[in-house]
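Input C-alpha cells:
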C-alpha cells in the first residue's frame, strides 16, 4: 500500500462532506478496495484462545479473500491463503463460528484433487505427480501475523502495525488470552461496509435511536443536554475509584492516522451507580483479567475500519466488520468473559444485540438513501468528527488510486 497518510491534501469543501453515492454502490470501487486497501489493513482473525495447540485453526473471509490462521508444528501462528495452488479451490470452509478450539489439523488436504500441504503451507504431496519435482516449491501464500492483547491479526502490509502492537497497552490488562468466548453472532447487513464504519465512529445518532444504550451510558443524555460538566465529574470520580483499585487507565488517543491507518481509544465513565453495561448496572461475572478498575467505566476504540472494541469490567465485545460485496457486509460480535462468568447469554448480549439491530436498520436505510439519484453529499456536525476523519482518510486513499 502506497503511503498516503503524509500527503498534503488541499482541504477543499468536498473534504468536509460525506462521500459521494458511488463510493457505496459502485462495484468497480469495491474491486479497487479489495486490491488496494482491504488486503493491507489489519484483520482480526480470532482471539488467540482458539489457537492453543498446533493444528488449531480458524478461517477468516473478507470479500473474496479467505485466509486460514493456524498454529504450525513449531507452535507458531501462520496466516495462509485459503486457495489451492493447483486449480485454486478453497481449501477449508468457513461454516462455523467456534467458541472453543476446533480439532487440530495435521495437514491441509484439498478436497478437489487431494493435494496436501503442511501447516506451514508447503506442498508435501501433489497426488499423481509425486515424481514431478517441479511442484515441490509450491506453497500457499503467506500473510503477516501480529498477535497483541490476546488477539490475532493478519495483513499483507510490509511492516508490523504499531497500532496493533499498542493494543497491548490498551487491552492488555484484560488478559484476553486467558478469557473465553461466551457468545459470538454474525449479522448480515445489506449495506456497504463504509456506512457501517461511519455509523460506529459517531454516537450523535445514539440519543434518538438507542434507548437501551441511553439507559446504560449516562453520557448520551448528558451530552444531549449540553451538560459535559457532569460527564467530566463522572470521569474524575471513576478515575479516583480506578486508581484505588490499582488500575492505570490507558492513555486516550483520539481519532488519529499513522502508517495509513486510523485508530482511537477512549476511557468512558458509565456514570451513577452503573458498574458495567448490564440491564441493572450490576456485574454479571468476575473481573476480566486484572481490570478491576474498569468497574464503572468502559474502554471504547478501534484499529482501522474493521475492528471496534468495547471493554467493561466483566466482559468485552469485539465488533469485526467484514465486507462481502459492495452492498453486503457481515458484522460479527464476539462477547468474551472470564471463565467464571455467571449470567445467561440473554443478559450478556442484551445491550449490544439490541443496539446492533437498531444500527443495522439505520445503516440499511442509509444504503437505500445513498443509492438514490437524489442523494447529495451532506455536511458533518461537530460530534461526527471521527466519521469525518474516516471519510477524509478514505478520500485520500481513493485519490491516490
Ligand atoms: S484444486 Fe486443489 S488439488 Fe486440485
Ligand atoms: Fe448506533
Amino acid at each position: 500500500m502506497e503511503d498516503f497518510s503524509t500527503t498534503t491534501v488541499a482541504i477543499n469543501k468536498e473534504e468536509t462532506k460525506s462521500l459521494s453515492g458511488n463510493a457505496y454502490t459502485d462495484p468497480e470501487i469495491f474491486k479497487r478496495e479489495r486490491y488496494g486497501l482491504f488486503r493491507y489493513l489489519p484483520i482480526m482473525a480470532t482471539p488467540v484462545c482458539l489457537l492453543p495447540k498446533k493444528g488449531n485453526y480458524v478461517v477468516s473471509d473478507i470479500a473474496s479473500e479467505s485466509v486460514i490462521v493456524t498454529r504450525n508444528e513449531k507452535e507458531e501462528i501462520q496466516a495462509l491463503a485459503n486457495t489451492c495452488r493447483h486449480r485454486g479451490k478453497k481449501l477449508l470452509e468457513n461454516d462455523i463460528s467456534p467458541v472453543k478450539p476446533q480439532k487440530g489439523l495435521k495437514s491441509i488436504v484439498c478436497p478437489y484433487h487431494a493435494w496436501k500441504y503442511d501447516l506451514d503451507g508447503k506442498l508435501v504431496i501433489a497426488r499423481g505427480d509425486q515424481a514431478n519435482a517441479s511442484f515441490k516449491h509450491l506453497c500457499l501464500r503467506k500473510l503477516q501475523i501480529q498477535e497483541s492483547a490476546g488477539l490475532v491479526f493478519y495483513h499483507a502490509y510490509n511492516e508490523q502495525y504499531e497500532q496493533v502492537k499498542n493494543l497491548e497497552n490498551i487491552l492488555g490488562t484484560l488478559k484476553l488470552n486467558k478469557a473465553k468466548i461466551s457468545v459470538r453472532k454474525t449479522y448480515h447487513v445489506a449495506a456497504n461496509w463504509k456506512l457501517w464504519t461511519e455509523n460506529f465512529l459517531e454516537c450523535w445518532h445514539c440519543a434518538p435511536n438507542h434507548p437501551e444504550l441511553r439507559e446504560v451510558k449516562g453520557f448520551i443524555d448528558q451530552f444531549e443536554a449540553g451538560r459535559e460538566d457532569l460527564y467530566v465529574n463522572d470521569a474524575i470520580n471513576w478515575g479516583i475509584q480506578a486508581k484505588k483499585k490499582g488500575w492505570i487507565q490507558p492513555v486516550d488517543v483520539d481519532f488519529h492516522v499513522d502508517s495509513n491507518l486510523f485508530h482511537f481509544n477512549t476511557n468512558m465513565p458509565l456514570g451513577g451507580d452503573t458498574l458495567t453495561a448490564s440491564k441493572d448496572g450490576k456485574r454479571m461475572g468476575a473481573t476480566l483479567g486484572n481490570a478491576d478498575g474498569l468497574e464503572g467505566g468502559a474502554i471504547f476504540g478501534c484499529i482501522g475500519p474493521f475492528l471496534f472494541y468495547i471493554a467493561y469490567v466483566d466482559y468485552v465485545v469485539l465488533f469485526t466488520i467484514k465486507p462481502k460485496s459492495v452492498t453486503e457486509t457481515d458484522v460479527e460480535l464476539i462477547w468474551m468473559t472470564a471463565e467464571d462468568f455467571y449470567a445467561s447469554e440473554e443478559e450478556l448480549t442484551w445491550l449490544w444485540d439490541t443496539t446492533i439491530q437498531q444500527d443495522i436498520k439505520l445503516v440499511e436505510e442509509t444504503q437505500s438513501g445513498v443509492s438514490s439519484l437524489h442523494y447529495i453529499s451532506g455536511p458533518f456536525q461537530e460530534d461526527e468528527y471521527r466519521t469525518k476523519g474516516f471519510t477524509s482518510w478514505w478520500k485520500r486513499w481513493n485519490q491516490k488510486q
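The mean pLDDT is 92. The chain is about 25% helix and 25% strand.
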